[in-house]
Specification:
41% of the residues lie in helices and 18% in strands. With 142 residues, the chain is an alpha+beta fold.
Length: 142
């Protein structure tokens, strides 16, 4: 019975539990502004899009990226921008990817968030490892 529930859960599509229209930043956004946004919204990371019109994904930036960079460089410089610290070409999924595949990717690559993109690599959502696990718990309770 539990095995059947787990198999059904694994076949759920990313679109059923992803965050639609997530917050994002652009490469030229200042690190200080980005960090403040993440702290105020209690967000561990943000997708980075080329521009706010097409939202073509170009990277991802996390609080961890910013913290680690503090040891390596002077982030107080007003010239430090998201493009200086972001991870370019992050791992992504499509909205019809199964949860089983997405969760395996997060563990395999040691990442907590996966941008969800369309066929034009435009940001349409964000899948958090934590949301997958919360959804799994709810699924098992049923």
């Amino acid at each position: 019975m539990v095995e059947d529930k787990l198999n059904k859960f694994g076949q759920i599509k990313v679109s059923e539990i992803m965050i639609y229209n997530p917050l994002y930043v652009t490469p030229d956004e200042k690190i200080s502004t980005t960090e403040l946004l993440m702290l105020r919204k209690n967000i561990g990371g943000l997708p980075v899009v080329k521009d706010t019109i097409k939202k073509q994904l170009v990277g991802i930036i996390t609080q961890r990226d910013i913290r680690l960079a503090r040891f390596a460089m002077n982030l107080e410089s007003p010239n430090k921008t998201v493009k200086d610290l972001m991870t370019p070409e992050p791992f992504v999924v499509k909205k019809d990817t199964t949860i089983k595949h997405a969760l395996a990717l997060t563990f395999d690559k040691n990442i907590e968030r996966l941008p969800v993109v369309n066929e034009n690599n435009e940001l349409i959502g964000l899948l958090l490892q934590n949301n997958i696990l919360k959804s799994l718990l709810e699924h098992l309770k049923q």
